[in-house]
Every structure is written in structure tokens, then in C-alpha cells.
Design goal:
This protein is mostly beta strands. The protein is built from four helices and 41 strands.
Length: about 675
């Protein structure tokens, strides 16, 4: 699993870009201003449009914004850790992207979970980040060091790429030139000898700038099995991942900016047993044009090429029983959003977007007793979605009204499932009929500034999510439990409303409170049919009612950022799902909270503690296996050394809490134990 030569290549690229930029600055000192100049530290930063501005009514939908400081200064250095500071955010499993199966990294909000697909739409610079086949989020595809802001909007979406924003939208925004230093790097090691390396260069080029960034994480991991359950075949959660990305931002005029982005990453993990290896990889490219003239617009086009592999090891005989050896997928799409000049009191958005996901799987089955090949399975299909949307914000003094509607033409096509025995004899050859249709989503909200300190808001919405190719066609095994696919799955639809208030109690002191009621009709869940057999089915509904609270304090050098969510989520089921009626959805806590206290006496000094609590969860839909509540304490410290260098110390789970991430009949996996990191930063 060594990638050291690749890391050297990445660092050499960053150093070369740094050196070339510095050389260009020196060699061009006497040239005409009309020549293209590359400057590492330009005396004048040209303002480029990173994105279209937020609309006036954006806060009406319970929006939370994480700034760069909160994103890059966590105890673990992981993106999902930063997102966990938002009340209601969760992944399907409690484990992070070092010790979970990639396909279990679905992201959701407001306890609208139940399976591993994302019910929240995650965008990176306006492009959907989720895997085209599985719907999980490859968090290592967006290193936190490269991000400048995250905006989390809870509730069903009706704007761009709204099909998929069932529980909300998480918008990741790359850091602009104003947030980046010309050269940045960090190197950390922990008490297990694991390493985390990052480097970036951000030189000015012409009237714009470029960013090249690389990150490499590698570790032997920890035993996810408790001491009492380890066997000779038990393995540490070994991991290795790398990411290389590049961006070019160039003004094409006074009110037009071009953004080009490319990224490649690879992620290798081992879970529970020797040989239980998984991998995910991606190659992404996008182009974006942002116009900020009288007719504001944003045009995006993208392509994604992903793959996934996974080996399943028997938990009784510790031999290979399934090799999911190839799952290539492709995601293609784009968006055009236009904001016509309709007067100072209105912010009108009109647009169209398209997304196409196609993928196939190939897997081999093996006998747990003989080790011989027993059969092969092939499956796949294509999903497409064309959306038309319009939304307007109307400002009337201290009152803002907002409303939008979205029409989606969806296609579920080319689905198939084929099975052969070891000799190649065809056993099953299913071809599934094409399904097409129209869906309508909408949202509306009102926001009223009752005073300079108090804002009142309310919203209602209807959202949509198509089943993923994974849910439709791919069975999977978490030995000994088999979960079968279901090509007849229907779309999920959410309807909900919320009311809330934001109170600026004093300068630097703010509180927020939101009450919500969300209902997902046709929620897709892994339904137990027999002790070791499940199938993906559409439930009648999942109803989630709850309260979200937040607090922020900035007084001198003191900082407090806290959030909490209490959610009463229940399955509504009849027929085959009648035994589940009233149960809480799997993996969903009733209460979750996070609080970070920090002391920031200077721009480069930060000392912080983060306390998090996740309430009891159930492993399965029967509520037979419990994941106990867990409380963790993380820490972060950065102290400057001079000349741009800082020493950094981080701590994860300092209380060494047993975080149960899986429980199947008493067989459990544990999350990260106490871990301490130490290292250096430059340019942060």
C-alpha cells in the first residue's frame, strides 16, 4: 500500500509551480504590462467571482455556515468531523472515512437516515460529489485544507440539483485567493505512527490564480474488534489514501470568471479481517463560468469517473466468500442558472440542470468451505434526471418572501441482473423495464427582521430523491447478513415545514432555534425478511419531528460554537412493514450535540476543545441490537514558531470512549480510540 513515489511527485509539482511563479515574477519585472505575468505574491489581488452571491432569503431555510477556521482546525483533520459540528448531520455509520466501508458513507440531516445512501445533496463548487453508483460521499475527495466555506441548508431543495436534496444541501466551496497563502504545507504523525501530509501552492497567474493541492494519509489503523472478540484473522483498520487536485480561476472580462477544476484520488482500507480490503477511486473534472453583470449567471459542466471494490470475509471461517472486484461508474451533468435583473426588490433565479449516472458491477462468489469459485454476478443500469427550476425572493422592507418550484423528468433505464455458475452457465438473466416520469418539488419561506437583533423565519418544502443504482441492482453482504437489491424501488418524496428564530443577543453572541416536521414518503430501507436476509424496500414513510439549537459566542479571544438536535423519528409501516411501525429508523440517534470552546489570542494561535455526544442508536430495523450512546472529547492546538511555521497538536477521543459502530447479535466494531497527533504547519 505504499504511495511514497506518488507523494514525491505531488510535492515536486507544488514546488515546481512555486519556483516557476517566483522566476516569472523576477524575469518579468521590466516587461510590458500587457504580457501575461505569473506572480506568487501579487501586490494587487484581482477580484474574481468565486460564485454567485447568496440570495436574500437563504437564511429562511435554517442555513448554517462553517468558515475556514472551523473546517481546518478539527481534532481528526477530517471533513466529516467538521460537518459533525452541525446539529442533525450524520453519516450512516459512526466511524469516519478511515475505518468504515466507503459504501456506508451516506450523509443525511435531521435523522432522515435508515440506509447508507445520502439523503442530503453534497456539492463541491456547484458539482454533485456523491458517487454515481452508490450515492455515498467520498469525503477524501475534498480535503478540508482546500475549502473556504461550507453552507448547510436543511430541508428539501427545489433549486439547482434539487433532485437528491431530500434532507437538505451541503455546499462545499473551495478557498479563494484571499484565504490561501502562496505556499502551504503540513505534516503530522500520531501515537500509532500514522501520518498525514498536505501541500498546496496558490500562485497568481495572469489576472487570476491557480491552486495545486495534494494530501496523503496512511496508517496501520486500530483493531475495530474488542479484545474479547479478536481471532487470529482479526486485522487492524489499515488505510491509505491520496488526493491530488488543481484549480484555475481566470477573469475573462470585468464581469465573467472561468473556473477549471480537476481531481484524482484513491482510497484503500482493510476492515475487521485480513483480506477484507476495499477501495474507491475517482477522477473528476469540471468547468464553470460565473457572470456577475446585470444578467448574473452560472454555467457548470462536469464529468466523474469512479470505481469501487470490496472483499467480504466470512466471520466464521475467515475465508473469502465474495469479491466485488469491479464497480465502474460514470456521472455526467451540468447546470445553467440565470438571474435576470427584475428590480432591486426581487432576486429571481431561473435554470435547468441535468445529471446522468451509469454503472456496472462484477463480483465473484466463493465457497467458505473449499475456497472455490461458485458463481459470478453482474448488474447495473442508468439513471437520468433533467430539472427545470425557478425561484424568487421578494424583499418588502424588513420582510422577505421566497418561493420556488422545480420540475424533474427522471429516467430509470437499462437495468439488468445476470448470474452464472462457476462454469459460466447462465442461471439468471433479468432485464428491467425502463421507467420514466415527472416529479414536482417546491419550497416557500418567509423571513422577518422583527428588530436589529431578532429574525423570525418559517419555511415549507417538498423534495425528491431517486433510488441509486446500488439500491436498485446491487445486493451486498455484511457477513452473515445478505441484503438484496430491489429493481422496483420507487422515488422518495419529502414534505415538511419548519419555524425558527435567530437572536443576536449582544455583539458577538448569537443563538438560533428551529422546530421542524419532516415526512419522507416511500423511504428506502433495508427491511429484515429473515434472520440473515434483508431487502431494500419502500416503507410507507419516515416521520421526523424535532428541535435544532445553536449558539455562537465571540468575546475577545474566547470562542464558543455549540449545536444540539433532538429528533423523534419513527417508521410508519403497513403490510410487510407493519412490524416496523413506530420503530426508530436504523442508525438514527434521538439526541446529538456538539460544542467547541476555543481561545484565539492571535491570528496564528488557537487552543480548542470539542465535546460531542451521540445518543443511543439501533443497528437494524427490528431494534434488536443497540449502539450505546457515546461522548467524545477532541482537542486542537496551534502555536506559531515564526517565519510562517506553527506547531500543531491534535487529539481524538481523549476520553478513550468505546464508540460502538456496528452491532450484529453482539458482534461489534469500535470506532477510533484515543489518538494524539503532533506536527508542523506552514502557511496556515
Amino acid at each position: 500500500m505504499t504511495r511514497f513515489p506518488m507523494l514525491l511527485t505531488m510535492c515536486a509539482m507544488a514546488h515546481s509551480l512555486h519556483a516557476n511563479a517566483a522566476h516569472a515574477q523576477s524575469s518579468n519585472e521590466d516587461t510590458s504590462s500587457e504580457d501575461t505575468q505569473v506572480t506568487l505574491a501579487p501586490t494587487e489581488i484581482i477580484v474574481t467571482a468565486e460564485r454567485l452571491p447568496d440570495t436574500p432569503a437563504a437564511p429562511a431555510y435554517g442555513t448554517v455556515v462553517l468558515e475556514r477556521e472551523a473546517i481546518t482546525n478539527t481534532g481528526s483533520g477530517r471533513l466529516e468531523d467538521a460537518l459533525s459540528s452541525v446539529a442533525g448531520f450524520q453519516q450512516f455509520r459512526r466511524s469516519d472515512s478511515r475505518s468504515s466501508n466507503p459504501s456506508a458513507q451516506g450523509a443525511t440531516l435531521r435523522a432522515l437516515g435508515g440506509n447508507a445512501s445520502s439523503r442530503a445533496q453534497v456539492l463541491l463548487d456547484g458539482v454533485p460529489l456523491s458517487d454515481p453508483f452508490f450515492g455515498y460521499i467520498p469525503f477524501n475527495a475534498a480535503p478540508p485544507e482546500t475549502l473556504g466555506r461550507i453552507r448547510v441548508t436543511r430541508g428539501g431543495g427545489a433549486g439547482p440539483f434539487g433532485a437528491g436534496a431530500l434532507a437538505g444541501t451541503i455546499e462545499l466551496e473551495s478557498a479563494g485567493q484571499d484565504a490561501l497563502t502562496p505556499l502551504a504545507a503540513s505534516a503530522l504523525v500520531n501515537d500509532r505512527g500514522e501520518t498525514e501530509l498536505f501541500a498546496s501552492a496558490a500562485p497568481g497567474i495572469g489576472s487570476g490564480y491557480a491552486v495545486v493541492a495534494a494530501r496523503w494519509d496512511r496508517g496501520k489503523g486500530f483493531f475495530t474488534a474488542p479484545d474479547t472478540q479478536r481471532v487470529p484473522a482479526s486485522a487492524r483498520a489499515q488505510y491509505e489514501s491520496w488526493n491530488l487536485s488543481g484549480r484555475l480561476v481566470q477573469p475573462l472580462g470585468s464581469d465573467l470568471t472561468l473556473h477549471l477544476r480537476g481531481a484524482a484520488w484513491d482510497d484503500q482500507r482493510t476492515l475487521r479481517f485480513d483480506g477484507a480490503d476495499s477501495s474507491s477511486e475517482g477522477r473528476d473534472a469540471s468547468i464553470r463560468l460565473v457572470g456577475t453583470g446585470a444578467w448574473q449567471f452560472e454555467a457548470v459542466g462536469y464529468g466523474q469517473w469512479r470505481n469501487f471494490t470490496n472483499v467480504v470475509i466470512s466471520s466464521s471461517r475467515f475465508t473469502r466468500v465474495l469479491d466485488q472486484k469491479d464497480t465502474p461508474s460514470t456521472g455526467l451533468g451540468g447546470k445553467l442558472e440565470v438571474r435576470p435583473p427584475v428590480g432591486a426588490d426581487h432576486a429571481l433565479r431561473v435554470g435547468v440542470d441535468y445529471r446522468r449516472s451509469q454503472g456496472d458491477l462484477s463480483e465473484d462468489r466463493y465457497s467458505a468451505f473449499s475456497g472455490n469459485l461458485t458463481g459470478r454476478r453482474f448488474a447495473g443500469g442508468r439513471n437520468g434526471n433533467l430539472g427545470l427550476f425557478v425561484e424568487d425572493d421578494w424583499t418588502i422592507g424588513r420582510l422577505v418572501l421566497t418561493g420556488g418550484v422545480r420540475f424533474d423528468r427522471y429516467t430509470i433505464a437499462d437495468g439488468y441482473f445476470r448470474e452464472e455458475d462457476a462454469g459460466g452457465t447462465l442461471l439468471t438473466d433479468d432485464r428491467f423495464a425502463t421507467r420514466k416520469g415527472w416529479e414536482t418539488s417546491w419550497r416557500a419561506g418567509v423571513m422577518y427582521d422583527a428588530s436589529a437583533q431578532l429574525r423570525l423565519r418559517a419555511a415549507t418544502y417538498r423534495g425528491l430523491r431517486l433510488p441509486t443504482l446500488n439500491e436498485l441492482y446491487r445486493p451486498f453482504v455484511v457477513f452473515p447478513v445478505v441484503t438484496n437489491a430491489n429493481a422496483a424501488l420507487e422515488n422518495e418524496r419529502l414534505e415538511g415545514f419548519e419555524i425558527g428564530a435567530d437572536w443576536q443577543a449582544a455583539p458577538g453572541i448569537a443563538f438560533s432555534l428551529t422546530a421542524f416536521d419532516n415526512r419522507v414518503e416511500g423511504a428506502i430501507a433495508n427491511v429484515t425478511l429473515a434472520p440473515n436476509v434483508r431487502q431494500r424496500r419502500n416503507l410507507d414513510a419516515i416521520e421526523a419531528r424535532g428541535i435544532e439549537a445553536g449558539a455562537k459566542v465571540e468575546r475577545g479571544a474566547f470562542r464558543l460554537d455549540a449545536s444540539a438536535a433532538y429528533t423523534d423519528a419513527k417508521v410508519q409501516g403497513s403490510g410487510f412493514a407493519a412490524p416496523l411501525d413506530g420503530n426508530r429508523p436504523p442508525q438514527v440517534p434521538q439526541f446529538a450535540a456538539s460544542a467547541t470552546i476555543a481561545w484565539v489570542p492571535g491570528a496564528d494561535t488557537r487552543l480548542a476543545l470539542t465535546l460531542r455526544h451521540v445518543g443511543k442508536q439501533f443497528e437494524d430495523d427490528q431494534q434488536s441490537d443497540v449502539l450505546p450512546a457515546a461522548t467524545t472529547l477532541d482537542a486542537f492546538a496551534q502555536v506559531p514558531l515564526g517565519a510562517g511555521f506553527s506547531v500543531v497538536a491534535r487529539g481524538e477521543n481523549l476520553l478513550d470512549e468505546d464508540i460502538v459502530t456496528r452491532n450484529q447479535g453482539g458482534s461489534v466494531d469500535l470506532g477510533v480510540p484515543r489518538t494524539v497527533w503532533i506536527g508542523l504547519r506552514y502557511g496556515f
